[in-house]
Amino acid sequence: MKKWWHEAIGYQIYPKSFQDTNGDGIGDLRGIIQHLDDLVDLGINVLWLSPINQSPMVDHGYDISDYYQVDPVFGSNEDLQELIQQADSRGIKILLDLVINHTSDQHPWFQEALSDPTGPAAQRYIIRHGQDGPPNNWRSIFGGSAWTRIPETDLYYLHLFTKNQPDLNWENPTLRQELYGMVRYWLDQGLGGFRIDAISHIKKDWQYENMPPDSDGLVNGFEYFRNVAGIEAFLDELAENTFRLYDSFTIAEMDDIQQERLAEFIGDQGYFSTVFDFFHTKFYIRQERYAKDPLGFVEELKEELFQRQAYVADQGFMTNFIENHDKIRSPGKFIPKAYINEYSKRLLAVCYFFLRGIPVIYQGQEIGMEDYPKESIHDYLDLATHNMYQEFLDKGMSAEDALFWVNLECRENSRTPMQWDATEQAGFTTGEPWFAVNPNYLEISYAQQRKGNSLLAFYKKVVALRKNEQYRETWIYGQLIPQFEEVKGCIAYTRESEAQRLWVIANCTPQEMRLPLSAPRVVLLNNYEQLDQGTELRLRPGQAIVLEEER
Ligand code: BGC
User: Fold this and answer.
1) How confident is the model over 264-284, as pLDDT tens digits?
2) Which residue has a Cα nearest atom 3 of ligand 1?
3) How far is the CA of 291 from the centre of ligand 1 (A)?
4) Considering the entire predicted model, what is its pTM?
């Protein structure tokens, strides 16, 4: 069955870093309203906001202390209402970030639990007795023990993320109803839906035994707290009481779903509309490893990419992305340093935007923002990043090496403020930004790219082509067939429907590439000015194109 969101072209905003309008150095909702026309110009129709609820911001909003209030640093509930309406009038649906695996430790529910940890209110959290230490040796996803002791007791609460993010106890039916009520409240405000945070962790498989530890005495217990059997019942109940009652669009942060069960999660009757496809997140171009064999990287990536597309096939839609607030920027991730340029950034856009699935752009990706390595660990603010650094030190790395790896891999890289123009602080704020602006804003900014043949202009073309009525059905519902798989460094596929065959071809090598594709085709998109089509197709280094073939 066709749904409105099949046509979604998403854009993720990390509100803290998007646009500040009141000079406090932190982005806000009015800043988003101010740029709605830019987003319309880009062509997107779904806007996902990382959390904007009231929060002590230990995890920059992923620690919510009041589900019903907008945090004052972002504005008010009225501002959000205005944003929803203004966006709606421009054909854009808003998705909020639904963080329901955990709350903040400042949430009144948790405060209540702390004051009477064995009482009924404490049943909202996962609180267990320890014996000479935490109940077990699970490591938190952000490092350190996943348990923190409640002062003056032998009780511990579980937190899969920071100790300020206690996990909710989904086994508690009253709590579940409280959460569903809150979700319905927001859907009633006219939202398009949600991006759903860390939802694969809501079911735990209790192991009170310590498992064989790593050198720090802890262990990654993912098999006990990710996609654990029984989670289906929670997800189904959640969907039944909330999303399915509305014509909503939901993107879940959920990985590792077995192929044969995919339809249960994202099909027409799925718990969610779609889930992010995280397959590529483990790929990083490593200069030293790939210096001698850069094409090896492309080949590995390509193989997995096509496997994933075949895995989903027509069972539903995954959500395709190359950047988000938890990963480094895509140029540093996928492109060898020497080749990071305007062509290769365009190539990345071409490669992923026409895959089967819902494309999402992360703020700043459309102007080619890059990572900003720091000179000191103290320039980072994120707790997970600091824990990562500490783990490197604990493993015996020098401070210099640890910082080198943090700079390469840490998630805060993508959280630098949006580079709007070449004025001070990149036009992000008139105050002191909460996180330093990348000094390359003088070369990379939105204002500069509004005109001419810029990356931004190219992204607009990409989006326009993806939405073009003539091709839309094929892009959305057409089959994906890998092409020229044997050609090293070539990522190519066709999208096919009865009426059309659309070719997406990228030469990911620094050499010219010749492909046996003879009949001239209509060029729909090209990251170079020219294309040599004759008896064969000749692609320049890093050239990426989209062609149409009439059937
Ligand atoms: C979010 C992270 C966040 C974590 C805990 C995620 O997967 O994307 O940014 O820190 O959940 O809420």
Assistant:
1) 999 888 999 999 999 999 888
2) 62
3) 33
4) 0.97
